[in-house]
Amino acid sequence: MFSVTEPHPRCFKFARETYAYANELVWEYQFDPNTHAMSPRRNDPPPAYMHRCFVMVRSARQFFYHARFDPQAPIAEAVTYRWLVREIVSRNPRRTSAEKDRVVVPGYESLWSFSRGQEALLKAECGGAWQSYVLRSHWRMILPVWRSHQERMANQLVGSLSGGRAPIVHLFRFPQLTINHGIILYELAETAGGLRFVAYDPNIPAWPAELDYNSAKRAFYFPRNHYWAGGRVNVVEVYRGWLY
User: Fold this and answer.
1) pTM above 0.85, yes or no
2) Domain locations in the chain as residue ranges
């Protein structure tokens, strides 16, 4: 069964390691409490920054793995920040940098404050919408996802968190297109039925999200929010190896 250990000394902190802005949605979803159906309607005017969920979670973790902020240093020029961001997001996404090798970002205390002060620059430099679709890991969702696979995945995620990693997971229901999304897991606790993972969801920057694992059903469940009706999802950890 699961072995939930104490948090790693350098842990992901929601108020520091996340973006102040959101991945905007093309559709606005309305929930019908009688039928439990979600009715989509296009947002008007259309969003300017959309289809970036995987771009945002990948780059947020790159900052967590490879950056160090120095709020005592003066704010730099845009050209300097542009170079620093490119260096951070281009590093290996599967391992962390030693403290001495981290890229120092001057003038800000965290990614959250950096993204408030340099929003346009970060949106321009962290990746385009196509990078949320052309992912090496997306091949996996076309294959069957067995309950045994999800049980192994739950144990793998526990191991990742226990080792100080902040695993990025792909949530999907292929061949349905109701959800195709990426979030960062950074905390977990045992529940009566299994596990509860706490997550950063780039669609909801104001507060943490949750992802539950039911041990008896060997299945993950993502609760209802403003873009998803709630229910079972398939989960695969991505940016972990050469196949994912």
Assistant:
1) yes
2) 14-132, 136-238
